[in-house]
Design brief:
With 289 residues, the protein is mostly helical. It is built from eleven helices and two strands; from the N terminus they run H-H-H-H-H-H-H-E-H-H-E-H-H. It has a two-stranded antiparallel ribbon.
Length: 289
């Protein structure tokens, strides 16, 4: 549409002079000029492939849980969470977490595309925001132990806290270089641990709300680098092995999954307590001086 058309239709008959028309056309052209490396933005790097694998893993996790609910409701009319489906869904989330752990390392080692950071955040929303929130709904929404609105509120808090956490991560950098708030993959794994370890009650729903709060809190969590990154990767592989044994119904599987879930919750809980104790000791030292 040209400028005279805009004057006739969009401004109820107001006329536009030629100089103004020229300035409008110029400003439109300027705003429509491409910004940044447009050609490079369409090239996927190896790190981007890992981010896409993360997103696909989260999507498949949701599909597995949805299929388990639909299949049982269609046959029996009642849904009981099946450990095999939950185990498969959690293994997929751990695969996504492994992709998320490596995509940053690969991007730094090789080449990062112009949209790498955005792909990483979008994938994290699917795998560590929506997928665990959906798992909470499957876990508590059909149990009839709690009101549905409370289960949905807990699931929604996980999703929204994850979205806020990722948005803040893109905008705010800490002086120490650590994460501000519980990283979303660790938050997702903690929610999963609560789901696998406990029945839906008011107390366990409270634990899920606490995890959501930790994600948006100002508590600093160490960033996995070097030996710590290797330790995190080893911890994920151990969890995958324990979940496989548990889902297959092998001997000792229940004990393994319980120990792993308890350790996950303990690690996430211990870090804020350690930070609080450290800050308290710092305040004491300052007051003594």
């Amino acid at each position: 549409m040209t400028a005279p058309d805009l004057g006739a239709r969009g401004t109820a008959g107001w006329s536009i002079d030629a100089p103004i028309e020229a300035s409008i056309d110029t400003s439109i052209e300027e705003t429509e000029e491409p910004r940044g490396p447009v050609g490079k933005a369409f090239r996927l790097s190896a790190a981007d492939s890992l981010s896409l694998g993360n997103a696909l893993s989260g999507f498949l996790s949701v599909v597995v849980l949805a299929y388990s609910a639909i299949d049982q409701l269609k046959v029996d009319g009642k849904f009981e969470p099946d450990p095999r489906f939950f185990g498969t869904a959690v293994v997929l989330l751990l695969i996504g977490a492994t992709c998320d752990l490596f995509d940053g390392l690969v991007a730094r080692r090789f080449r990062a595309s112009a949209m790498g950071a955005e792909l990483d955040n979008l994938a994290d929303v699917i795998s560590f925001g929506f997928a665990p929130a959906f798992m909470v709904v499957i876990w508590g929404g059909f149990a009839e132990r709690l009101p549905l609105w409370l289960v949905l509120a807990a699931a929604g808090s996980v999703l929204l806290a994850g979205v806020i956490r990722l948005a803040r991560f893109a905008c705010v950098k800490t002086k120490s270089g650590d994460f501000m708030g519980l990283p979303i993959p660790m938050g997702a794994m903690t929610v999963v641990s609560i789901v696998l370890l406990f029945q839906p009650t008011v107390w366990t729903i409270g634990g899920i709300f606490a995890v959501a709060w930790l994600m948006v809190s100002r508590v600093e969590y160490p960033k996995p680098k070097g030996n710590l990154a290797a330790l995190v990767l080893g911890w994920m592989m151990i969890n995958v092995a324990c979940l496989t044994i548990w889902a297959a119904g092998l001997a000792g599987g229940d004990e393994l999954i319980q120990v792993g879930a308890i350790m996950q919750i303990a690690i996430v809980s211990a870090i804020p307590l350690r930070v609080l104790m450290f800050k308290r000791s710092q305040r004491k030292e300052r007051s003594s001086i």
